[in-house]
Design a protein that fits this description.
The protein is mainly alpha-helical. Helix content is 50%, strand content 6%.
Length: 133
């Protein structure tokens, strides 16, 4: 049994990776706020994580992992960068809203801090159990 392969530890590690990628994407969006024709990007991760953890409200019945709707194993869940092409905020074709990006940045910072704290607490608990004190 792998001590570090528990679903909670894996999910927290994946969340930290997703938050780090989100930070980079937001920084890129902010850096290009005045670039003509630039289209902002975002990170898609939360829904994939929910599906992998089995939190769907109505899971589909499948008999093979290749069927559509089969949950992706937690180890294979990865954040993906999605470019938002369909909107335009300014006259120059750019769709970055600096206020929205700052809100996203603050929310991402809180998410990262919460995941890091939870992961640290889990690892501290393991250390406590191993040492026996």
């Amino acid at each position: 049994m792998d001590l570090f392969a528990s679903p909670i530890l894996v999910a927290l590690q994946k969340q930290l990776d997703a938050s780090a990628l989100t930070q980079k994407v937001i920084a890129n969006n902010v850096a290009n706020v005045n670039t003509p024709g630039f289209k902002k990007s975002s990170v898609s991760f939360t829904e994939e994580l929910r599906r992998a953890l089995g939190e769907d409200a109505l899971p589909l019945v499948t008999s093979s992992p290749r069927h559509i709707g089969a949950p992706v194993p937690l180890a294979r869940v990865e954040p993906t960068v999605v470019k938002e092409e369909g909107t335009t905020m300014g006259y120059n074709g750019n769709n970055v809203d600096i206020d929205q990006e700052m809100v996203n940045l603050a929310a991402n910072a809180l998410t990262y801090q919460a995941a890091a704290r939870a992961l640290g607490d889990r690892l501290s608990l393991l250390i406590y159990v191993i040492r026996g004190r």
